[in-house]
Amino acid sequence: MTRWEPNARGRLQLAALELYSERGYDQTTVSEIAKHAGLTERTYFRYFADKREVLFFGTGMLQERLVQGIIAAPEGKPPLDMVGASLEAAAEPVEEIRDFSRRRQAIVAANPELQERELSKLAALTAALTDALRGRGLADPAARLTAEAGMAVFKVAYQRWVDEADDSGETLAQLIRQSLAELKTVAAAG
Amino acid sequence: MTRWEPNARGRLQLAALELYSERGYDQTTVSEIAKHAGLTERTYFRYFADKREVLFFGTGMLQERLVQGIIAAPEGKPPLDMVGASLEAAAEPVEEIRDFSRRRQAIVAANPELQERELSKLAALTAALTDALRGRGLADPAARLTAEAGMAVFKVAYQRWVDEADDSGETLAQLIRQSLAELKTVAAAG
Question: Given A157, A176, B47, B181, which is the most exposed site by the fewest CB atoms within 10 A?
Fold first, then answer.
C-alpha cells in the first residue's frame, strides 16, 4: 500500500540531518531516519538511493539550475561571467537554508565516506557545466578550464558562507561575486 | 622472516597495473598482485595500506614536489605563476611514465571506487597547496583560490596528456604552461 505523504522528501532530509547530528552518521540507520520522519523505509528508498544521498539532494538541484543558467545566458557575455551569473542565480534558493547548510556541512566534514560522495557530486557538476559551456560554442580546453575555474569560485565562496567563524553577514551571491573578482585578480597578476 | 627485496614497491605497482588491466580491478586480489610480483602479501601491506593505494603512490610524490616548489619559489613572483612553475617541476619525473600513466588512468576511469580515491587525493593536494601558499604569506581567500585555480590547470593539462586521441606530442610541462595561459585568457575576458 502506497499512500501520498506531504513533503516526504523534506521530512526525510530534516530527520536525517537531526539524527546524523545527534548520533553520528555511522550510528544511524535508514530505518531510524524513516521512523523519525513518520515514514517507512520503503518511502525513503523511493526518494534516495542510499544512506548518503539524503544529504546530496541539493547538489542535484544546484546542477540543474547552473546548467539552465548557462543555456539561458545572453549571447556575447564572456564565458566565466556567464558561469558567475549562473552560480549567483543557482545560489538564490540556497540563501534561505544557511543554518541547514551549516549543519549539513559539519556532518559531511566529519565523515570520509560523505566527503568522497561530495567530491564525486562536485566532479559531476563540473562535467555538466563543461558540457553546457560546450553547448554554448566554447571549445576545449577553454570549456573545461572555465568550468573548473567557476567551480573553484563556488567552492571557496560556499566554504566561507557555511563557516560561522568567517561570518561577515554576506550572502552566498555576494561571496560568489567577491571570489570571482579575486580569481580574476589572481590570474591577472602573472 | 623479512628480507630485503629490490624495488619491491615498483614491482608491486607494475603487477597491480597488469592485473587490474587484464582481469579488472574488482576481480584482482592483493594476494594475486603480490604473487605476480614475486612477493608476499605482507610485503604488499608494508608499502600500501589497501588495494587502491598501489595506484596512488604518484599523487603523494606529486604533492611533496609541489609543496617543495612553493617553499623554494623565488620572492616576488606572482602566486599563480609560482604554482605554475612548481607544477611544471613536479611534472618532470612523470614525463617518463606516460604509457604507465595512460594505463593507470584507464583503470581509474573504469571504477567508481578508484575515481573517488583519486578525487580525495586531489582534494588533499589542493589543501596542501593552499597551506604552502599561506606559508608564503598569501592571505585567504586568495591562497585557496590560487591553489584551486592551479589544480584546475593541472587537471586539464594532465587529462590532455593521458588522452591518446588528443596526443599532439606535447610534454606535460608544455600542456601545463598552455593551460595556465588559457586560464589567464579566460579570466581576463570578463
Answer: B181
